[in-house]
């Protein structure tokens, strides 16, 4: 387990935040791909929902850690379904995690440059930002599809510096993916925060390599100062 971490906010200039599972409840995404897409696939192409799940899960796994994993156009073509339209059918499930807005306000009040950095496809981004209205809290929003690399690729973080002028040692990354946190650590990002409560319907996870929080309120100092221990 990682040793206790003291965060001195005066030493952090930039905060990079993932979207799905980090700022937003991943219940929407999990339910969409695990249940909704197989159901609609079976309705269109025939066969049972269970058979559709077995087939689609194999296809999904084959594209893990690639940009195709989150590319809605790719999956629309592969599955013969209009994935963006299907996402709209479940948009009522899109939700912001508790205390996210409070954390974003804290960052703004203290002059931290804050960026949304996500693997999500542009069409997913548009849907979720329209639904949640959190886009205005960020100094910039970057999709991995814009850079041509997923965050799972160690080269991603260097390429990100071409569009966001951040100093790794004075930056924080909040993520629910340990794989992405590891590539960020290899690049030298100084403060790595694992979000264990990625879904409101799943048991929170605890990282053995990174400092885990359940809510971003854990990163907001409560004594009026600028330090917090996790």
Automatic annotation (TrEMBL):
Which GO BP terms apply? DNA repair
Cross-referenced SUPFAM superfamilies: HAD-like
Under which name does UniProt file this protein?
Answer: HAD superfamily hydrolase
* Source superkingdom: Bacteria
Recorded hits in Gene3D superfamilies, A to Z, give: HAD superfamily/HAD-like
Single GO MF annotation:
phosphoglycolate phosphatase activity
What PANTHER family has UniProt attached to this entry?
A: GMP_IMP NUCLEOTIDASE YRFG, PHOSPHOGLYCOLATE PHOSPHATASE
Q: What Gene Ontology terms describe where this protein resides (cellular component)?
A: cytosol
Q: Does the keyword Hydrolase apply?
A: yes
The record's section on InterPro entries has: HAD-like_hydrolase_sf, HAD-like_sf, HAD-SF_hydro_IA, HAD_sf
Q: Does the keyword Hydrolase apply?
A: yes
**CDD domains reported in the protein's UniProt record:** HAD_like
Q: Which organism is it from?
A: Citrifermentans bemidjiense (strain ATCC BAA-1014 / DSM 16622 / JCM 12645 / Bem)
What UniProt keywords apply to this chain's record, in alphabetical order? Hydrolase
